[in-house]
Amino acid sequence: MSAVNKKLPGAMELELEDFYTRGVFVGKKGKSESGAKKKYALLSESGRIKIKGFELVRRDWSNVARETQKRVLEAILKEGSKEKALDIVKDTVKMLKEGRAELKDLVIYTQLRKAIDKYDNTSPELEAAKKAIAGNVKR
Q1: Domains observed in the chain
Q2: Which BP terms does GO give this entry (predicted)?
């Protein structure tokens, strides 16, 4: 690594983090030639999965979405099975269509940062807040 670092300009320096045996890199929507910035999942030689940018590491997604994505990435990275990953997605969709998901696993917790009338664009959380204020929320 030091030989490579000596050839780099200025104060730039590379550091070896780990060795990864498999990886998933997600492309930008509509642009297949380049990947999204910092959206990837890697499997280390020790079996540890490193995830950046996916929904399962974000707080503004439901538990069912995060858990499904986690299981899909594990199927692809640890088992190398795109078939199992597809089955996981199909099973989740079926569960949702049949209404077997628990409400707590479908909830998305988020916070609006300004008054409702100050938003230019609508979003699911903005619409939910409007319905809650209007009293049209089912509990």
Answers
A1: 2-106 (1.10.132), 109-139 (no CATH)
A2: DNA-templated DNA replication
